[in-house]
Amino acid sequence: MLNFLRRFIYQFKEYFLLVILIVISLSFLASNEKPEVKKIRTFALGSFAAVNNLLNFFTGVFSSDPSINQIKEENARLMLELNRLRKQGVENQNLRNMLSVPDTSKYDLIAADVISKLVNKIQGNIILNKGSDDGIQVGMPVLNSNGLVGIIADVTDNFSVTKTLFNSSLNIAVTVQSINVDGVLSWNGSELIIKNIPTTYEIKVGEKVETSDFSTLLPPNIPIGIISKKESLALGLLHTIYVKPFADIRSVSNVFVLKVVASKQINQLEMNLMK
After folding, report:
1. Residue 29 has what pLDDT?
2. What are the residue ranges spanned by the domains of the chain?
């Protein structure tokens, strides 16, 4: 058996070497954020997505059910509306003006299918079958009926790339819903975390985390997840909070793009923080 494997590897060693070099090249390509490389990456992803989308069409043509997609879209709208009303209830208890709360339910939703997942330890991306021809723009939030999935990072005419919550270059301004504690959510390679929260705040496991009013990149009140645990750091003065997302990022197959674009100047500044 070992002799057979040795002969097989020796006979096809050039092909094995080619595959290894291609994998290494793609890894460097995925992590490089230079404009020239991003253009090549977007073109390559668009070409790959077109082929993958065609295959998915033939395999799923007999199994798709429009009514299921309509139910998922309605669930997403209800999720946004429910979270907005819950937020208004908290602010009303604190004697704040309810009219100051933005209404995320007024935004249009663009339904999209996930046609490919490019997920490793630090670069969690998905490709959608909708692009600029469908109204998709860089910076738009991506969610499903459970909560936030990510944000549009690259767009071609018919496809788009989403940086998911499981991407180490994506940093999102968030708030703990019940006590309005703000922080920055990021992916550390294995978990979603919020660093440097003062221990003077009474943070409880199970509390909900959502997008913050301070974010100009995303509208507020989009559900993200719940606090799964917390750790005290720096002599007990600061907390690191761990968040379990509502959306199952690794198995998501259908999403909605929230058709909202932030102020271009502020959006450009904050998008730079994602890189």
Report:
1. 57
2. 2-60, 66-275
Which helix (H) or strand (E) segment is 268 a member of? Answer: helix 264-272
Whether this model's pTM surpasses 0.85: no
Of the ranges 70-84, 129-143, 251-265, the best mean pLDDT one: 129-143
CB of 219 closer than 8 Å to CB of 119: no
3-state secondary structure of 124: strand
Higher pLDDT, 236 or 24: 236
Cα four-point dihedral sign 42, 48, 51, 53? negative
Bridging pattern class, strands 124-128 and 238-245: unpaired
> Tens digit of pLDDT for each residue in 7-17?
766 677 677 67
CA gap 112, 249 in Å, rounded:
15
DSSP 8-state assignment for residue 195: E
Burial of 214 (0-12, 13-18, 19+ CB in 10 A): exposed
CA–CA gap between residue 21 and residue 41 (Å, rounded): 17
According to CATH, what is the number of the domain 66-275? 2.40.10.340
Number of Cβ within 10 Å of residue 80's Cβ equals 25
Strands (E), 45-191: 108-119, 124-128, 141-143, 148-155, 160-164, 172-176, 181-187
- CA 131, CA 109: separation in Å to the nearest integer? 14
Please tell me what DSSP assigns to residue 158: S
Place of tokens 């339910």: 105
- 124 or 6, higher pLDDT: 124
Tell whether the torsion through CA atoms of 110, 112, 118 and 120 is positive or negative.
positive
pLDDT tens digit sequence for 116-163: 887 666 778 999 999 999 999 999 999 988 899 999 999 999 999 999
Compute the distance between CA of residue 154 and CA of residue 132 in angstroms, rounded to an integer.
Answer: 10
